[in-house]
Amino acid sequence: MDSLITLLPELNKSFLETLIMVGIGLVVALVLGLPLGLLLFVTDRGLFLENKWIKGVVGVIVNLIRSVPFIILLVFLFPFTNFLLGTTTGPVAASVALSVAAIPFYARIVESSARDIDHGVIEAAIACGASPWLIIKDILFPEIKSGLISGLTITAISLIGYSAMAGAIGGGGIGDLAIRYGYYRYDNFVMFTTVIILIVLVQAVQYIGDFFAKTVKKHG
Length: 220
Fold this sequence. Notes:
By secondary structure, the protein is mostly helical. Helices cover about 85% and strands about 0% of the residues.
């Protein structure tokens, strides 16, 4: 119990750092990954903005980033992170690599959600003279809202795992706490505590995400 009381300030700080990392990564994934995923979908063969060159180039870039293990991506982006922020340590610096990893991850989820839409609905809209923007706004978005929220939930959970890895090399957060106290100091209590916190955090994110996805689907 005394160990927990002593550790409480560090736990609070680490938990906040994890939320900062994951929060920044999620916002960037939503702002950049969503349009990127829609671009991958609408430029596909047979769609209203079909363009094999854009589809091919964007698809290759997305696949290249996704194929690099996160810990390697994190180290690879150190020079860019240092140029951008003037440092490679701390939760904000770690969020650069988290964001880069989250963008293609979420983009593919968005593309996959859009593929579930009945193409007949899109073809009917085109036949009625609807513009590409109108189709995206009034047909694609309403149809995939639930999938977008579920995808964002999956992305958030992945980022929580990535943030723990980022903590191992100066990113801060719960992963950093587990390494410094649980691993280097052989403190099993700290290790178990950090694992429990991560499990609870993932469960909470999953529950909230499922709740909103079901709510949107019900009122859709």
